[in-house]
Amino acid sequence: MSFPKNFYWGGATAANQLEGGWQEGGKGVAISDICTGGTADRSKRITPEIEEGTFYPSHEAIDHYHRFREDIALFAEMGFKMYRFSIAWTRIFPNGDESEPNEAGLRFYDELIDECRKYRIEPMITISHYEVPFGLTKKWNSWTDRRQIDCYLNFCRAIFTRYKGKVKYWLTFNELNSATSAVGGLLNQGILNEIRPMDFMEQVDVPQNRFQGLHHQFLASALAVKLAHEIDPEYQIGCMQIMATSYGLTCKPADQLANQKQNQIMNWFCSDVQCRGKYPNYIHRYFRENGIEIQMEPGDEEILLAGPVDFYTCSYYMSGCQTADPEAKKGKGNLLGGVPNPYLKASDWGWQIDPEGLRYSLNEIWDRYQKPIFVVENGLGAYDKIDEDGKVRDDYRIEYLKSHICQMHEAVLDGVDLRGYTPWGCIDLVSASTGEMAKRYGFIFVERYDDGTGDFSRRRKESFYWYRDVIETNGEVLINIL
Ligand code: BGP
Q1: Alpha carbon of 97 to those of 22, 101, 210, 311, 407: distances in Å?
Q2: How far is it, in rounded angstroms, from Cα 205 to Cα 310?
């Protein structure tokens, strides 16, 4: 009655949200670097030219670039077995299209990986996490152009070769299925259909571009799997999706059908291609009805078939509901649309909390693919505060994580092959959706605030000690309480 032996407990981050050092070591400009800060109610902005006097949270982020040794030591103190982080593409290829990698960038990750290994922490590296080089966006609107596949593969070759023997687990793209909705166009794909200053939430969305971009990313992913296995047969390459668990709002058949359709497009389409190596039948009707025409070249289907991923990973934060009733649709749903679930409470950002949904989805994923699974993001974004005695009492976060870990354990008992858990933002960092620091996820508090103040000092929250006990007992401390 516990988690599997050698279960990978750890935490997850992404370069653009914690490193800072945006112009150091020859780094180029990423799309994340041209996004200003925002809040829960005020969208962040995209500014193709950097504006004097405007705050750009990624530029310094939490200064991990200079403090990674201290941070990794804190992760080790919690007993991490795995650390999921990403490599900033623009540190290795500043504009994205150079033929030779940037040595200073490669050296930075040498040091970071060595630091992990020093504490026997297994790295899991996301190759592209929400920071496409802006140079490629300007050059050919990023993934809309097939030539981007070669740039991505050059990047992969550089890092697969350099870190051979030191890394085993790689993820090709963060939350690839975010690109099935408008929110992923820029965030995930670096696609900007009009290059001008605008609110992040008001980007011009061209679904054709997103889905053509996805086709190129599927090819890139499949070719990266092949390349990785050629360079080192020990390499394990995974996909990474947002698991946006969804229920029919009622048991009306029309609601259930609406929900099935939503699940097919949002939750299964990308992982079906990446895990099974081919486009699923249901997508063709969706393409037809939405005027999407994928330009395929001869040989593309063979490439996809030859490059399925070795394992499946996802983020999991919330669930939502679908309905066929136009009246019910009018309310505000979660970040990813849909309608709220009357049985669930939401976080301060409106994300509905649903631990059982995690067990439910893990079972579905396992039944569908029969590939090892890692939950590589999960957590509660909350407004934390430092009490007068200097402590951060984040019992709400402990509650959130505890309930999700218990449901993961149920999934393990159900027979799901779950290999690891790396909760999101194990150290406070910049929010991807809003660009704010105030939305904190960490076990470690960072003194950095949305007005750009703060000395970047780190402090252990209550959840830090709690998670350390969870890891030390392989989760038993929780299971036995229940
Ligand atoms: C996922 C992203 C992360 C991360 C997380 C939390 O979608 O992969 O980069 O930030 O969500 O979201 P947010 O930062 O918007 O709260």
Answers
A1: 18, 10, 21, 29, 44
A2: 32
| CA 351 remoteness from chain centre | 16
Q: Whose CA is nearest to atom 11 of ligand 1?
A: 432
Residue 301 to residues 73, 239, 456, Cα–Cα distance (Å):
45, 18, 49
Using the mean position of ligand 1's atoms as its centre, give its distance from the Cα of residue 339 in Å.
20
418-421 and 8-12 beta bridge pairing: parallel
Report the nearest-CA residue for atom 2 of ligand 1. Answer: 432
pLDDT tens for 422-472 read 999 999 999 999 999 999 999 999 999 999 999 999 999 999 999 999 999
In which band, very low, low, confident or very high, does the pLDDT at 169 lie, cut at 50, 70 and 90?
A: very high
pTM: 0.97
Residue 412 CA: distances (Å) to CA of 1, 116, 312, 360, 405: 9, 27, 15, 11, 11
Best mutation site among 433, 436, 437, 441 for ligand 1, i.e. most ligand atoms within 8 A of its Cβ? 433
* Ligand 1 atom closest to residue 439's alpha carbon, by position in its atom list: 16
**Residue 431 CA, ligand 1 centroid: distance in Å:** 6
Active-site residue, selected from the candidate residues 19, 60, 377, 410: 377
230 catalytic per annotation: no
Is 60 catalytic? The answer is no
**pLDDT at residue 482 greater than cutoff 50:** no
Tell me the pLDDT tens digit for each residue of 113-163: 999 999 999 999 999 999 999 999 999 999 999 999 999 999 999 999 999
254-263 long-range CB contacts below 8 Å, 24 or more apart?
Answer: 254/324, 254/325, 255/322, 255/323, 255/324, 255/325, 257/324, 258/322, 258/323, 258/324, 259/321, 259/322, 261/286, 261/322, 262/322, 262/338
Cα(17) to ligand 1 centroid in Å equals 9
